[in-house]
Design a protein that fits this description.
Blueprint (H helix, E strand, L loop, with lengths): L3 H15 L2 H12 L4 H8 L3 H13 L3 E6 L2 E6 L2 H17 L5 H5 L6
Antiparallel strand pairs: 1-2
Helix pairs in contact: 2-5, 3-4
Length: 112
């Protein structure tokens, strides 16, 4: 069973991973299907080096895993429940999104 401190750390790691738009796009792409880095880089329009850094972050956060496939490596979500969590988060944000943006709220202490 997770302690409160470890539960907070898990959520903080998830938050750090979601803090970057490219990492969000990677997670959404992997939600659709596992992929090799070259395919992901092309699909997302980023360099392989940049993608590699983001994949390393997502691995360190425990959100994706690298699966050896012959001489190549395929990436996928670490747990299928992450895909469901992403779906729920996206639905929740759409439900509360309005005219205000997070950047506007930052002045009031939100999103720091």
């Amino acid at each position: 069973m997770l302690t409160i401190a470890s539960e907070v750390e898990v959520l903080a790691r998830f938050g750090r991973a979601l803090a970057d738009p490219i990492r969000c796009r990677v997670l959404i792409a992997l939600r659709q299907a596992p992929a090799h880095p070259a395919e992901l880089a092309e699909r997302l329009g980023v360099s392989r080096t940049r993608l590699s850094n983001h994949l390393a972050c997502l691995r360190d956060c425990g959100l994706v895993v690298a699966v050896p496939v012959g001489r190549r490596t395929r990436y996928e979500l670490a747990d299928e429940r992450l895909g469901h969590a992403l779906d729920h988060l996206r639905a929740s944000v759409v439900a509360v999104a309005g005219e205000r943006t997070c950047a506007e709220d930052e002045e009031k202490g939100c999103c720091r």
